[in-house]
Amino acid sequence: MSDHDPEQAAARANLCRFLAACHYEPGPEFAEEKLFDSMHDAARRLDPDFADRTRRLGEAFASTDPETLLVDYTRLFLGPVNALAKPYGSVWMSGEATLMQDSTMDVLSLYREGGFDLDEGFRELPDHVAAELEFLYLLLYRENEAHRDGDVDALMATTTLRQRFLAAHLGAWIAPFTAAAERGAGTGFYRELAALTRAFVAAEARRARDS
Q1: 1 is a domain residue
Q2: pTM confidence score
């Protein structure tokens, strides 16, 4: 545990949580809650590239009118007919448009194993990108707690679960999903979000393989 940097670990967890928030419908709360200031603060503690990406993301949000952002969000992730970048793991892991496949049930099982409950107000499928990022946040947060408390058993269990989750789920489909979002985005905001999400999850997947 001596190599653990609590400040960097907290920044990784926070950046993950903020990325999850960005994958919900855009609204004035993004600015009201100073989401992008918080993202940049976390990112600058981790990597200059992440810091630059979060700065550009915030600038793109501020320079785009809300209606344009909402239209882009809808056409990318919702449809109404053929969404350009469906935000569900099962779509990208199977190569089919069908939702709620075996991979969805698998990730739900991992959530239960990790004690992660989807909020009653969450009206999406369990393998939605926001849900998977929130689960990764929870695992990172719990690992940090285990380090702080010197709880070796909890640390090992949570680290192992994070490694499995990234290898079999989020890390396995984030690249094609974000490539589709980046390619189809009509706004700089969603292009920047796709690129940042891909870079962050790739870094976490590498870290998981090396830990």
Answers
A1: no
A2: 0.93
pLDDT tens-digit profile of 79-107? 767 899 999 998 898 766 656 567 788 88
Q: Give me 85's structure tokens.
A: 């970048």
Give buried/exposed letters for 102-124 (b at 16+ CB in 10 A, else e): ebbebbbebbeebebebeeeeee
CA 156 – CA 8 distance, rounded (Å): 19
Q: What are phi and psi of 88, to 5 degrees?
A: -125, 130
Range of the domain at 177: 6-210
- pLDDT, tens digit, for every residue of 61-81? 999 999 999 999 999 999 767
Residues near 44 by beta carbon (within 8 Å), at least 6 away in sequence: 50, 51, 54
Question: How many domains does the structure of the chain reveal?
Answer: 1
